[in-house]
Write a structure and sequence with these properties.
Layout: E1 4-10, E2 19-22, E3 27-31, E4 40-41, E5 45-47, E6 53-55, H1 56-66, E7 69-71, E8 74-78, E9 83-88, E10 93-106, E11 110-116, E12 121-124, E13 129-134, E14 137-142, E15 151-155, H2 170-173, E16 181-182, H3 186-194, H4 203-207, H5 211-218, E17 223-224, H6 225-234, H7 239-245, E18 248-249, E19 258-259, H8 266-278, E20 279-280, E21 287-292, H9 295-309, E22 314-319, E23 322-328, H10 330-339, H11 354-357, H12 362-376, E24 377-379, E25 384-388, H13 391-403, E26 409-416, E27 423-431, H14 434-443, H15 449-458, H16 474-484, H17 496-502, H18 510-525, H19 530-539, E28 543-555, E29 560-566, E30 571-574, E31 577-580, H20 583-591, E32 621-629, E33 641-649, E34 654-658, E35 661-663, H21 665-674, E36 684-685, H22 689-695, H23 698-709, H24 712-830, H25 832-918, H26 922-939, H27 943-967, H28 970-1032, H29 1035-1042, E37 1048-1051, H30 1052-1055, H31 1063-1070, E38 1077-1079, H32 1082-1094, E39 1102-1104, E40 1121-1122, H33 1134-1141, E41 1145-1147, H34 1150-1156, E42 1163-1165, E43 1170-1171, E44 1177-1178, H35 1194-1247, H36 1250-1302, ...
Parallel strand pairs: 3-49, 3-50, 36-48, 38-39, 41-42, 48-49
Antiparallel strand pairs: 1-2, 1-32, 4-29, 5-6, 7-8, 8-10, 9-10, 10-29, 11-12, 11-28, 13-14, 15-28, 16-17, 18-19, 20-21, 21-23, 22-23, 24-25, 25-27, 26-27, 30-31, 32-33, 33-34, 34-35, 37-38, 40-41, 42-43, 43-44, 45-46, 46-47, 50-51
Helix pairs in contact: 8-9, 8-12, 16-19, 18-19, 22-42, 23-41, 24-25, 24-37, 24-38, 24-39, 24-40, 25-35, 25-37, 26-36, 27-36, 27-37, 28-35, 28-37, 36-37, 41-42
């Protein structure tokens, strides 16, 4: 079996240079995804299937970062599952398709910019294809082959799901710096605890939040939303759960909550639309600003912002029916910014972000347009329009209209505001045609009632526009009419469009075609014929055919261009245009002899030759040769190699060669057939063939099996012959009828033809005359423009000369200013402020010195006192130790005695108990026991011990009181009180004199400052007075005023009292009349004028009060009000002031004037612009100059200031004298105060803080009284208890006596003796215990605490002594330093004051020079105003002329190529134009199409007479062929079918392990009358038809079918063009393995961009396209 060894290409399509491709015997791959060099610019916006809009460079670069490999001139990356909108060329519907590859290539030097009539623009390489409608088929064409007027495909309906209404991406867009917060909830704290999987220290890092956030949650603080989202996601919350959890947000420092619009809605969409139209988010505020003048819109907006955000705005009606609606909320601003509203209020940055577009249904998109069009939209009597300054927003509006199926046209245009002169680039989007108006109305019910009313009128009782949405299908209509044998004339009344379409009088519209299809064609035949199905497909298509109006070649300023590879369809939507995305396959098809150039993607054979691009040289011819191996004698020739070559020239003729010898095409085909090579065979699979193989009708699949079985080729010939025969016979039958119709039609057209010819001639004459007239107009204005420019230049030279003088004077002024500044610096450095500071510093040093000396004396006394107290304390401490030792010794003796008593008590008590038991009297003994218990109870109350404790406390208090009385004796306290009083008086005296001194210093400083201010104000007013006089008075005015004539009152400027803020505005409003002289009557005015004439002194304006006629300006409240009401003047001059100012009103600025209305009033602005009632606006930059008006009362003020200068000079001298006297008083007061403080400190050092001691004494005396009272109470209780004990002992003795009487006296005496002894021992034990406790208590509570206190005081005294000694050293040093510093500062103060006076004098002289220079500068600058005003006037004239010239030139564009006439005047031209136009109108309605149609119909008439010769012979040949085809067709077919089915099942199982597949006959009994179905079972699903499978499954099934054909009827080689486009990586690998396996039996050449397939190839070639569209081939792998 043979194979292709190599292929040579030269001049064929993009292969301009000779190339050679040697192929391997088995498996070769060629890469170059979807057309090398076919790319668009990076800013091109593509439409993804989810509705989002993305720049292609961002889409491609994002993918390349993740996964890419280097190609010859760029980068490639595999698809990632993203889906894009694409046009299905079979159904002509927009559908979703996956992106299979991303491409990035080096940009060529030049690109093509293509713009369509609807305003769409795309920038692409010259070789990037777009789609056109050619001969009823949609096909691609390279951009460089397009021409202006060609129509290209754009989508008319983009379907995007938008089913998920939740803005989930908003969660990812919220940033910490947005400062959006939500209130704390316990739930968040619980979530945080549950998700803790590590330590608290590590958890913030794991989650990705700062530690402070987690601490804030635990401390119940508000939470930053961005960080909360991270925490919830870490806790495995899904997006919906997060959105449900977080409903409200707030700003950081506010408690106001706002609802978050997580879900899209019609309300949110309309609100967003309102804001995009007339909303803004100004900088540096928390405002959301909306402006509108319609109350219903404002009310709807307020309701929506409450419903969406739960926010209440404020409303301000800043003028009638103009409302500002302001919502104060930073959170709402941040959220709106996420959706596309720019922060900063710039309208050109507005857009609609993908967050919104992805989650919007058509209903919600309509809501957004409702808001936009209610705000910015306009509805005229022929269109719906919207204009925006934002390009991005404009594109989004266009995309939304496309999603709603509404066609539009857009245009960029410069718009200028007439009132401000501001201009900018805007985009206007217009909707035309009733069909589109109805679509708009069905979807959008405008809230704006007036606009909705206009929309209703626009759609009322109007027919569809026949010039909108055109499809060039005249040929299809003609075919259908012929096939259905429809008569044109009878249907002309019902279907008038039929005749126009049939005879090519106009291009059909979609609406017109739809009417014909539904009402005429379908009722006759249904949808049975092929041409009718084609018509239906185009009517229902998603394509709008948009005409190209401009193609420009532009220099590329981009480094890269971009492309996408799309599954099956190989196209995508870019900038709302459908764009296409290998010439190697075309080369092979060409050389093998395929006749159809369209199958090789060219209009004709000549288009297969390289055209040279824009700058290269085109090839003269193209050839392709292919070299086959013939080592096995596959071809019937002896040569070991067979070379087949095909050459084509520009005339379209092809030449064929076999091994260099010229042959016919048929000879080439016969040679190829001998080797089983068919140019149209199934071994060559082009782009799209794999899809077709999967989706082909079952009958077509049966025909393939027939063809392989050797049957279909004869059947095809038979069917083709019969079909052609039937067609010719049908045409001949119609020919006679049509000839008759054509003859009649020609006669009717002749009249129209003659009329149209005459009309064309008249039209030509009118255009020539109009062009000539416009040319004359332009010439006149250009001459006028030259004169104005000359005058402007002349005045400008005057200004330049003056400016030169001003610059020199300004330099002198600057030098003087610098000198003054230096003096000011020196004055500030050594002047009065420094003098005051120095004086204050000296006083502070003196005070500090006095305090330091007092402190020094005090510390020395304190050291002496501390030493004495420490010595006393040490002695007392020694005495305390002695007392403690004596008490401890006494306590020890008492304890020994107590033990001895206890032993005796125990012994006697036991003896007593025995006696009582032996001699018992139970009743009496019980009574005695009861009495003993009562006695013991009284004794156990321990009142004696309590009394002893109180006595101890009393002793301590009395001891401390005696100590205090020794320290603070009455003489000491009396002396101390006296010293306190003296010190207080001394301090008050010092404060008083210090305050007087400070007050005098302040008075001196204030007086000096005030004196300087008064002097500066005096100079300023003097300068103003001088300048005003120089500005306002020219020579003539000056001379008139010098006459002092009775009845001459002065100039307008002199008589007016103008507030400074209105000075410039009044000056502009008065204009040249500002220097008008007001006189009593016209007589005086006449005298003055005569005087000026006689003396040749110039001219002046006079205002005679008796003759001025003025109108009352009325009551106007706009702006600041009438100018005349803002100034003051003598009422007798009212007529003159009304004359000068009239009804002029004063406003803030030009914007304020525009709001009031240009032309409504004469208006002057505060910054010097003027608007006349004529609409003229005068303004611009004005140099600052002093006011021409004198400040009211300036003369009086100058006199007053002179008086003030004298007054303050005298005051300063008086204050300086008082300061000297007061300084002596301060020194004396300080010495007296220091003396009293020293004596008082000595006493306080010996006794401590007297106030604390006295307070302590009072507290101790109070405690002593309380203790004495408590002791008295206890004594009373003890006496009472003592009486009770005596009574109880008496009773006991009585009972004991009774017992004694009854008992043995001796025994009783013994018992009684023992009881007395026991009682005595018990009392003694109590006393000893009490004494021991008393000793312990004294030691513990009195002596030891006192001892500890003394030790602590001694320690503190030692520490204080150390501190005082250190402070004494420091104070000695500070006192010495302070005395030196005071002497130095006093010398410095004296020197500073002497220098100060000289510098002030020098500064005054320099200020005087500066004022003179300032006056000179202002005089010169004021001169320039005259010239500037002239230039402004000339500039207005110039702008007007330039505008007129531009307008005339624009009109001239219409007559660009029209020949101009010579020697005619404007009036003659106008007369001829009127005459010719009248003649044209008299012609009535003219059918201009008749010129073209008449010639066309004539040619058709001639051609219809030439068709009728060979039909009978061809018919006999067909009948013979039919006889030969019959016989054993079915058995031959079934044999091949069974073999192919077996192969199909086997190969399918190799490609996928998930299922099975087989072929099924639709009619098993008569297989040739039915089709062949492909049934597939995937996994455990039921068997499905191939059409029900996914794209990848379809591809696998189609490939299995193709390989099964190869097994049955092998071809020597196979060419596969991107058959793997829809396969994922795993299936691509299986395909690669299968190709590798089959490449052992036949040669495989695969065009691919798939890594898995590329990896299996034995030889790899890369194809790329460079400058001028030249393809290069590089061997990448061997």
């Amino acid at each position: 079996m043979t194979y292709i060894k190599k292929m040579k290409i030269h001049g064929f399509k993009s292969f301009a240079k000779p190339i050679e491709l040697p192929f391997s015997k088995d498996f070769s791959a060629v890469i170059g995804p979807n057309g090398s060099g076919k790319c668009v610019s990076g800013n091109t916006i593509v439409q993804l299937s989810d509705g989002s809009l993305t720049k292609i460079q961002e889409l491609v670069n994002q993918r390349l970062k993740a996964n890419s490999y280097v190609a010859d001139d760029g980068y490639l990356a595999e698809g990632d599952g993203k889906r894009i909108l694409s046009l299905n060329l079979n159904t002509l519907k927009i559908e979703e398709k996956p992106i299979l590859a991303y491409v990035k290539r080096r940009s060529p030097k030049t690109l093509l910019s293509i713009r369509t009539r609807s305003g769409k623009t795309i920038i692409a390489t010259k070789y990037h294809p777009l789609f056109i409608l050619d001969n009823m088929e949609v096909r691609s064409i390279k951009a460089e082959e397009l021409k202006e007027g060609t129509k290209i495909a754009i989508p008319n309906k983009i379907r995007c799901d938008g089913a998920n209404p939740y803005f989930e991406e908003l969660l990812d867009e919220i940033r910490p710096e947005d400062n959006l917060y939500i209130p704390w909830k316990q739930e968040y704290k619980d979530i945080l605890r549950k998700c803790k999987k590590t330590t608290w220290n590590k958890l913030p890092e794991v989650i990705g939040v700062p530690k402070t956030i987690l601490k804030g949650i635990m401390d119940k603080q508000n939470i930053n939303l961005a960080f909360l989202i991270r925490i919830l996601r870490y806790a495995r919350f899904k997006n919906m759960e997060i959105m449900n959890n977080v409903e409200y947000i707030k700003s950081k420092n506010s408690s106001k909550l706002y609802k978050i619009p997580w879900k899209n809605s019609e309300e949110f969409s309309r609100l967003f639309g309102y804001l995009l139209a007339e909303g803004r988010l100004p900088n540096y505020t928390d405002h959301v600003w909306f402006t509108n003048g319609d109350e219903e819109i404002v009310e709807d907006y307020i309701n929506l912002i409450w419903k969406v955000f739960e926010a209440k705005p404020t409303i301000n009606e800043y003028k009638p029916r103009c409302y500002d609606v302001i919502t104060y909320s930073q959170p709402i601003r941040i959220l709106l910014n996420k959706f596309g509203m720019p922060l900063g209020g710039t309208t050109d940055k507005k857009t609609i972000n993908n967050i919104y577009l992805r989650h919007s249904t058509e209903h919600q998109l309509a809501g957004l347009l409702n808001g936009l069009y209610c705000g910015d939209g306009y509805i005229s009597n022929r269109s719906i329009e919207i204009t925006t300054k934002s390009k991005a927003l404009g594109f989004c509006i266009e995309s939304i209209l496309a999603r709603l199926g509404i066609d539009y046209r857009s245009v960029f245009q410069v718009k200028a505001a007439t009132n401000t002169g501001f201009s900018g680039m805007y985009k206007t989007i217009r909707i035309y045609g009733v069909d589109n108006f109805l679509k708009f109305k069905e979807r959008i019910n405008l809230v704006h009632k007036e606009k909705q009313k206009r929309l209703d009128e626009l759609t009322k009782d109007k027919n569809a526009n026949p010039n909108v949405d055109l499809i060039e299908l005249n040929a299809v209509v003609k075919d259908i009419v012929k096939e259905l044998k429809i008569k044109i004339k009878p249907n002309r009344g019902i279907f008038p469009r039929l005749e126009s379409y049939y005879y090519n009088q106009c291009t059909p519209s979609r609406h017109g075609l739809s009417v014909l299809y539904k009402e005429l064609f379908t009722p006759l035949v249904g949808n049975q014929i092929e041409s009718l199905a084609l018509l239906k497909k185009h009517i229902d298509s998603n394509i709008f055919w948009d005409e190209i109006v401009e193609i420009n070649e532009i220099e590329s300023d981009e480094e890269w261009v971009y492309d996408l590879c799309i599954e099956e369809n190989h196209n995508f939507i870019a900038n709302n245009i459908i764009v296409h995305n290998s010439n190697v396959v075309d080369s092979l098809c060409f050389v093998l002899g395929r006749l159809s150039s369209k199958s090789m993607r060219a209009d004709n054979s000549a288009k297969l030759i390289y055209n040279g691009g824009k700058h290269g040289n085109p090839a003269k011819e193209a050839y392709v040769s292919i070299l086959f191996d013939n080592s096995q004698n596959t071809f019937p020739a002896k040569a070991k190699e067979i070379e087949i070559k095909r050459l084509v020239r520009h005339n379209g003729q092809s030449k064929y060669f076999i091994n260099g010898e010229l042959r016919t095409r048929q000879q080439v085909l016969d040679l190829l057939a001998a080797a089983k090579i068919n140019p149209d065979g199934h071994n060559i699979i082009l782009q799209g063939d794999i899809t077709h193989a999967a989706e082909m009708p079952s009958e077509e699949r049966r025909e393939i099996v027939e063809d392989i079985a050797g049957i279909s080729i004869y059947e095809d010939k038979k069917e083709k012959a019969v079909r052609e025969l039937d067609k010719v016979e049908s045409q001949l039958k119609e020919a006679s009828i049509i000839l008759t119709e054509r003859g009649t039609y020609l006669k009717e057209l002749k009249k129209d033809y003659d009329q149209a010819s005459k009309y064309k001639e008249l039209e030509k004459n009118v255009k020539s005359n109009k062009a000539t007239y416009l040319s004359l107009q332009v010439k006149q204005r250009e001459e006028k423009l030259e004169k104005v420019v000359s005058l402007i230049n002349k005045n400008q030279s005057q200004i330049d000369s003056i400016n030169s003088k001003v610059k020199q004077v300004q330099q002198d002024r600057e030098e003087k200013r610098q000198d003054i500044q230096k003096l000011k610096d020196e004055i500030e450095k050594s002047g009065e402020s420094s003098q005051l500071a120095l004086h204050s510093e000296i006083e502070t040093l003196k005070e500090q010195l006095s305090e330091d000396k007092i402190r020094f004396t005090t510390i020395q006394n304190e050291i002496k006192s501390l030493n004495e107290r420490t010595s006393q304390l040490k002695s007392s401490l020694h005495d305390s130790d002695k007392r403690v030792n004596a008490m401890q010794e006494k306590k020890s003796k008492l304890q020994d005695e107590l033990e001895s008593i206890k032993d005796g008590f125990s012994k006697n008590y036991n003896e007593l108990s025995k006696l009582k038991e032996k001699h018992s009297f139970d009743d009496m003994e019980a009574e005695i026991a009861k009495l003993d218990s009562e006695i013991e109870s009284i004794k156990s109350q321990n009142f004696e011990e309590k009394k002893l404790a109180l006595l101890r406390d009393k002793d301590k208090v009395e001891l401390r009181l005696s100590t205090i009385e020794k320290l603070a004796s009455k003489p000491q306290l009396a002396k101390l009180n006296n010293l306190k009083q003296n010190l207080k008086q001394s301090a008050q005296n010092l404060n008083r004199v210090m305050e007087e001194d400070s007050a005098l210093l302040n008075q001196l400083s204030s007086a000096r400052i005030r004196l300087q201010q008064i002097k500066e104000e005096h100079i300023r007013l003097k300068t103003q007075q001088t300048l005003a006089k120089e500005h306002s008075i020219n020579l003539a005015i000056n001379k008139i005023k010098s006459l002092n004539m009775q009845g001459v009152f002065g100039t307008f400027a002199e008589l007016a009292q103008v507030p400074p803020e209105y000075s410039l505005a009044i000056e502009v409003a008065a204009g040249s009349r500002i220097n008008s002289i007001v006189v009593k009557d016209d007589g005086i005015a006449a005298k003055c004028i005569q005087y000026l004439k006689s003396n040749k002194l110039g001219t002046a304006i006079f205002l005679p009060l008796n003759k001025l006629k003025v109108q009352s300006p009325g009551n106007i409240k706009e702006g600041h009000g009438l100018a005349i009401n803002l100034i003051k003047f003598d009422s007798k001059f009212e007529q003159a002031f009304k004359y000068v100012l009239g009804n002029t009103i004063i406003v803030d600025n030009i914007d304020a004037a525009r709001k009031i209305g240009i032309g409504k009033y004469r208006m002057a602005t505060l910054d010097g612009d003027l608007v006349e009632t004529s609409g003229a606006m005068i303004g611009g930059f004005r140099r600052k100059h002093s006011s021409l008006f004198l400040t009211p009362g300036i003369e009086k003020n100058l006199d007053s200031l002179s008086s003030e200068i004298s007054k303050f000079t005298s005051l300063i001298k008086d204050i300086e004298k008082k300061l000297s006297i007061n300084g002596d008083k301060v020194g004396k007061a300080r010495e007296e105060k220091s003396t009293f403080e020293g004596e008082m400190l000595k006493i306080q050092a010996s006794i401590g803080d007297i106030d604390n001691i006295l307070n302590e004494k009072q507290e101790l005396e109070k405690n002593l009284r309380q203790l004495t009272s408590q002791i008295s109470a206890i004594d009373s209780t003890i006496n009472k208890n003592s009486s009770s004990l005596n009574e109880l002992n008496r009773k006991r003795a009585q009972i004991r006596e009774k017992i004694g009487n009854k008992r043995n006296p001796k025994i009783m005496a013994q018992i009684e003796s023992l009881e007395k002894l026991i009682n005595g021992l018990n009392e003694k034990k109590i006393l000893i215990n009490s004494e021991i406790n008393n000793i312990s208590s004294q030691v513990k509570e009195l002596i030891l605490p006192e001892k500890e206190s003394m030790q602590k005081i001694i320690k503190q005294n030692l520490s204080q002594l150390e501190s005082f000694n250190s402070e004494v050293k420091t104070l000695s040093s500070e006192i010495s330093g302070a005395e030196s510093a005071i002497k130095a500062k006093e010398k410095e103060e004296a020197k500073l004051y002497s220098n100060f006076k000289g510098m002030l004098s020098k500064r005054e002289k320099l200020n005087q020079i500066m004022q003179e220079l300032e006056i000179k500068i202002n005089n010169e600058k004021n001169k320039t105003q005259i010239f500037e005003e002239r230039i402004n006037n000339f500039s207005i004239d110039k702008a007007k002329i330039v505008s007129e010239i531009a307008g005339l030139n624009q009109e001239m564009l219409e007559y660009k190529d029209v020949k101009l006439r010579r020697g005619l005047s404007e009036s003659e031209l106008k007369d001829e134009i009127t005459k010719f136009e009248s003649m044209m109108r008299n012609l009535g309605n003219v059918n201009l199409r008749a010129l073209e149609i008449y010639e066309q119909v004539g040619k058709e008439y001639e051609s219809l007479e030439q068709k009728s010769s060979k039909l009978k012979v061809e018919k006999e040949d067909v009948l013979k062929m039919i006889e030969e085809v019959e016989s054993r067709k079915t058995s031959t077919f079934m044999k091949s079918f069974n073999k192919i089915n077996s192969n199909f099942e086997s190969i399918f199982s190799q490609l996928t392990t998930k299922g099975t597949a087989h072929l099924v006959l639709e009619n098993p009994e008569k297989p040739l009358e039915g089709g062949v179905q492909v049934m597939v079972k995937i996994a455990h699903n039921k068997f499905l038809d191939i059409k029900s499978l996914s794209g990848g499954e379809k591809t696998l099934t189609a490939l299995a079918f193709i390989f099964s054909i190869q097994d049955h009827d092998p071809a020597p080689f196979y060419l596969l063009d991107e058959v793997d486009a829809a396969l994922d990586k795993k299936n691509s690998e299986k395909l690669s393995e299968l190709i590798k396996k089959y490449s052992q039996k036949a040669q495989y050449i695969v065009i691919t961009h798939n890594d898995s397939v590329i990896g299996g190839a034995d030889k790899l070639y890369g194809v790329s396209m460079h400058q001028d569209g030249i393809s290069h081939v590089v061997s990448l792998k061997v």
